[in-house]
Design brief:
Chain lengths: ~300, ~400
């Protein structure tokens, strides 16, 4: 069917309206993405007079042969997994707690939101202050006073403790998002289902298993998927507390990419390589996760 | 239809107008001066902008934008600006970055064409700290050797002089100070994973014949001298004479709180400790009985500057103006570059004499000549931390580090 002049006019008008956004998306997303993929095939140190030298897959070979890279990947999985699971557990518990009517409920809910509005760098500074291992680290002072520890613990400088410490800080910072989503989901559960469960003699645990969880499934999948994607990219708390140390035990992929591409010799080629791997990994993970986690609905 | 088209056109033109440069031909020439000395509690953050305003008065057609840039951010941010073609006209670096910026394409102007013989003669010999590979890459602004800074009260209580005769005496005095209390450290060493920590490590490795790279820029970390030094540092960390893993800013706080007996710093420490609330009577400086690397503040003239002559005039003013330098010393502790200014009685102090004497022992670490300085020093510091955390034996770990450094040098 031949488009009428009016339909063509509408189409051109619509095109002009979306053109600015389209240009911005190309400039801010598509161009950098393509640039990074192309750069990953070059040796390119920003401070080097040689400029960009094509090396094919050499950067990828270097990456896969690098123990530092595999360690960073493992740390990323631990960090992301730990953060999401920790956030989910805390957010769920708190959401269930405040899901009953009581006087100061709205005030309590708003208090739970405080960590979310504190900037990440401030959270990192608070963490450093709390977990400082010398005379004024609050956590150490309190634990020592309670007799739980005899000597101050180097929370951020011990290779076994640094990751749990930054995990804790990140969970504290990020759980409010999960809390808000789960709380909204709990509020939306139909009362009739809950009442029906009670009439049928289901106790609280069985109602949670068979009514609450199924109703929240889609929300949990959405919230955790978003959190996975965000946490894969999140490095502020780590960078501002430990800078990936001690001995790279808190170096995740974002930290490794930042150090490689933006510090020292500024190896953009190798940094882009790790970035491309990270993108592919994250895409594959997200698709797989949504497929597996969402399977139960069918 | 026409109305829709014209609406869309107007909308598009408005959007496109966002990208039209809005700078019009200005009456004033704009210069940019960038330094951490105006970004931090250094003592210079108020004085320098005031003095630059004075310079502007004698150049009414020039306006200077003073850009604060933190010390830690300086190498990466300036590098990116150089690559992007919008570097500030004048930026400040420290000696350890001289190699990086002197070798960087399109970064800095060779100042040999700007510095005439009379100007050079008026400066203290430390001006050579701006020279590299035959190029005068920068104008030294504050000549800064590292020295020992010590807490007078802790030294007195421990019955030590605070002025070690040699390396072994330094270690002994540190141990004596630590005996004053479990929470008192005899000495502070920068043991973070950063180039500053690696650079200052040279001060204690050189007396033992240790180095990170040798004169031929080959890895030398497993030399007997380096093994001896690292083993000693491990012992001192295990004894809690040295706090583990502290970087420079925490060490300053610990020192100002009376928890550290000795640590290594430069003349800027006066302004820094003022900011930490520590009285200048509570601490002193002593010469290190050995070589030290320079940590001079150097002004660089960007090759990309569109007003090089004016920028050079401002650089000369900042470095040589007597009123500026005199008050700058009072507030920051940083020494002047002009020989004649030292006649002023305010420089006739043990503080100044210590730094002047230490200038005779300045030595650049070999690793400064490598373009992969940061990566090499990071690898060294990471393995050093592994050793200090008991996760690797000294000799074995340092031996295993050498091929890693060789790999980095090859990249």
């Amino acid at each position: 069917m031949v488009a009428t002049r009016r339909e063509l006019g509408n189409g051109v008008f619509a095109f002009f309206l979306i053109l600015p956004s389209f240009l911005i998306i190309i400039l801010v997303i598509v161009y950098p993405l393509v640039n990074a993929i192309v750069t990953s095939f070059f040796r390119y140190l920003v401070t080097d007079a040689q400029g960009m030298v094509f090396v094919g897959f050499r950067n990828y070979a270097r990456m896969f042969a690098s123990q530092q890279f595999w360690n960073a990947l493992a740390h990323t999985v631990v960090y992301v997994g730990g953060t999401v699971v920790g956030e989910l557990a805390i957010a769920f518990a708190l959401a269930l707690l405040v899901n009953v009517r009581f006087r100061a409920r709205d005030f309590i809910n708003s208090l739970f939101f405080v960590p979310w509005i504190i900037p990440s760098v401030v959270v990192a500074l608070i963490t450093k202050f709390l977990f400082f291992d010398h005379f004024h680290g609050v956590v150490n002072v309190v634990l020592k006073q309670l007799g739980i520890i005899r000597e101050f613990v180097p929370w951020l400088k011990d290779s076994n403790l640094a990751m749990p410490t930054v995990l804790l800080a990140t969970i504290w910072k990020m759980f409010p998002f999960m809390f808000v989503i789960i709380y909204a989901g709990l509020q939306a559960i139909p009362e009739e289902q809950v009442e029906a469960g009670k009439i049928d003699g289901a106790n609280a645990f069985r109602r949670f298993l068979h009514i609450t969880l199924p109703n929240l499934r889609e929300i949990i999948v959405l919230a955790t998927t978003l959190e996975f994607i965000w946490q894969f990219q999140y490095m502020t708390v780590i960078w501002a507390t430990t800078q990936g140390g001690p001995i790279d035990t808190t170096t995740t992929l974002p930290v490794l990419i930042y150090r490689t591409a933006f510090l020292g010799g500024m190896d953009m080629g190798y940094g882009s390589t790790i970035g491309v791997f990270w993108l592919v990994f994250l895409l594959a993970f997200s698709v797989l996760y949504v497929r597996v986690a969402g399977r139960g609905e069918e | 239809m026409a109305r829709k088209f014209s609406t869309a056109l107007v909308f598009f033109v408005l959007f496109a107008a966002l990208f039209v440069p809005t700078t019009f031909a200005a009456d004033k020439v704009k210069l940019q001066f960038c330094s951490w000395m105006v970004a931090e509690q250094s003592g210079g953050e108020v004085w320098l902008p005031e003095r630059i305003k004075e310079w502007e008065k004698s150049h009414p057609n020039v306006s200077v934008e003073v850009i604060p840039l933190g010390w830690e951010d300086t190498p990466s941010k300036i590098t990116l600006q150089v690559q992007a073609g919008n570097a500030p006209d004048i930026f400040t670096i420290e000696s350890l970055w001289l190699g990086k910026f002197a070798a960087m394409p399109r970064a800095v102007e060779d100042l040999k064409g700007y510095m005439d013989a009379d100007f050079v003669k008026s400066l203290v010999p430390a001006y050579k700290g701006g020279e590299l590979g035959g190029k005068m890459a920068g104008l030294v602004w504050s000549p800064n050797p590292w020295v020992l800074v010590y807490n007078k009260s802790l030294a007195a209580k421990a019955g030590v002089s605070g002025q070690p005769r040699d390396f072994n005496d330094f270690v002994a005095q540190g141990r004596a100070i630590h005996k004053l209390g479990a929470d008192i450290f005899g000495m502070g060493l920068q043991l973070g994973v950063d180039e500053y920590s690696a650079d200052t490590f040279h001060i204690i490795s050189w007396p033992n014949g240790g180095d990170i790279l040798d004169n031929n820029l080959k890895a030398a970390v497993s030399s007997p001298g380096m093994v001896k030094t690292v083993q000693l540092v491990k012992d001192l960390v295990d004894e809690k004479v040295i706090p583990f893993g502290e970087e420079v800013r925490n060490l300053r706080t610990l020192f100002a709180s009376g928890k550290v007996g000795f640590f290594f710093e430069g003349p800027w420490i006066a302004g820094v400790l003022d900011g930490e609330g520590m009285s200048r009577d509570a601490w002193g400086v002593s010469a290190w009985p050995g070589d030290v690397q320079p940590a001079s503040h150097i002004l660089m003239l960007s090759q990309q500057s569109k007003n090089k002559a004016l920028a050079w005039d401002l650089m000369k003013y900042i470095v040589t103006d007597e009123t500026t330098a005199k008050e700058y010393f009072k507030r920051t502790g940083l020494l002047p570059m002009v020989k004649s200014q030292y006649k002023d009685p305010q420089y006739d102090t043990p503080y100044v004499k210590t730094f002047l004497a230490q200038m005779a022992t300045l030595k650049n670490p070999n690793v400064w000549r490598s373009p992969r300085k940061l990566e090499i020093e990071t690898a060294f510091c990471q393995d050093l931390q592994k050793i200090l955390l008991g996760q690797g034996r000294v000799a074995d770990t340092l031996k295993a580090l050498e091929p890693k450094i060789a790999d980095i040098l090859k990249q």
